[in-house]
Amino acid sequence: MAVAVGKIVGDKIREYVGSNPNPTVVLSFGGTVLDVKPTPVVAAFSSRGPNNLTPQILKPDVIGPGVNILAGWIGVVEPSTVHTDTRTSPFNILSGTSMSCPHISGLAALIKAAHPKWSPSAIKSALLTTAYTLDNTNTTLHDASVGAISTPWAHGAGHVDPQKALSPGLVYDASADDYITFLCSLNYTLEQVQTIAQNPNVNCSRRFSDPGQLNYPSFSILFRSKKRVVRYTRTLTNVGDANSVYSVVVDGPSTVSISVKPSKLVFGKVLENKRYTVTFKSKKRVAVKDAFGSITWTNSQHQVRSPVAFTWSW
Length: 314
What we know:
serine protease, alpha+beta, 5-stranded mixed sheet, 14 strands, Immunoglobulin-like, Peptidase_S8_Ser-AS, Putative tripeptidyl-peptidase II
């Protein structure tokens, strides 16, 4: 039998063992523990932003279950690496991407089964815009690596919510051609873009003036000394009811003014597209390096939320 503990508890055990000439320990099963608070928490080993390769795209995107996951295993796995240990088990317990990835992939498959005609981008948008950022104590998600409140550079859009993701109301869709345009705007060579797209006929006749123009369900705003205003246009597709009306709710730091035009979107039909433009303006030179906010399109049924990260590079 073994017990896994965190660093704080581990340090206390080490201190006790070092200070007591006859240390003793009792290991016993305490039963399944429910209603742990706070939950969920961003794992200490989870990936962190900002996105150094393409700062105009917010990463990470979203978080999901991935710590100490007990799951069925394909085939069998040895419980130890000792060569004389011939036992095998059809189950295993792991933490990390190896467990978080299948959770998110399973949710994507669930959404695809419910909406067979949705594109990968639409499914991704549904997962991001319906994610939640409050734990079961009604507090912003905590970051286990620092023991404090997490930010979109730790949790992205938040923790996935399967039930809400099945009915997001609106989605930010993007085609394969949109992503090729995005790659071309990153100044990859044509050969590199063709290799990624696995299509020798691809060309870079279209480019975004800014990689952040990709119709992505989040925003990452980079202010520079000669670029205090950033303006992006997004397109939303109505996957909810016909005759739906959405109003925008903006949350941002005092150091940035945010305007959205139009402030109301009226969808007469299902699968109808509507565009909006959001302008971010930094208020002169600021002392902070980063800040966060959100843009949410809301009605009585849905809250379509996009996280926004701001970075100043003077």
